[in-house]
């Protein structure tokens, strides 16, 4: 999928920590560490379409900084 189409899909996706940063990344803007981690979690979790919850992937090197670590589904 090309980046332009990917960007359109992400803009329509649910909100969550990392969405804005991921849009910036796809637009070619460099990110610092925290926004990079949050945007990767947003991407990895399928844009939080199933809810903003803990991914429960402790083997992931980014898991210690997962934005919703330890949280059950939020409204």
Description:
The protein is mainly alpha-helical and 75 residues long. It has one domain (3-65). The protein is built from 3 helices and no strands. The chain has helices spanning 3-12, 19-26, 33-44. Helix 1 (3-12) packs antiparallel against helix 2 and helix 2 crosses helix 3. The longest helix has 12 residues, at 33-44. The protein starts with a helix and ends in a 31-residue tail after the last helix.
Outline:
This protein has 75 residues and is mainly α.
Question: What's the topology here?
Answer:
Elements: H1 3-12, H2 19-26, H3 33-44
Helix pairs in contact: 1-2, 2-3
Kindly, what is the distance between the CA atoms of the first and last residues, rounded to a whole number of angstroms? Answer: 31 Å
| Uncertain stretches of 5 or more adjacent residues | none
Mean pLDDT across residues? 93
Order of helix and strand elements from N to C terminus: HHH
Overall spatial form: globular
What's the helical proportion of residues? 40-55%
Number of domains: 1
Number of helices: 3
Rounded to the nearest angstrom, the radius of gyration is 12 Å
Strand content of the residues, in percent?
A: under 5%
Number of strands: 0
Class based on secondary structure composition and strand pairing: mainly alpha
- Mind summarizing the main beta sheet? none
């Amino acid at each position: 999928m090309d980046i332009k189409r990917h960007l359109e899909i992400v803009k329509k996706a649910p909100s969550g920590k990392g969405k804005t940063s991921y849009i910036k990344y796809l637009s070619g803007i460099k990110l610092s560490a925290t926004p990079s981690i949050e945007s990767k979690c947003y991407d990895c979790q399928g844009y939080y379409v199933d809810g903003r919850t803990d991914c429960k992937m402790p083997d992931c090197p980014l898991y210690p900084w997962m934005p919703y670590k330890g949280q059950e589904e939020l409204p």
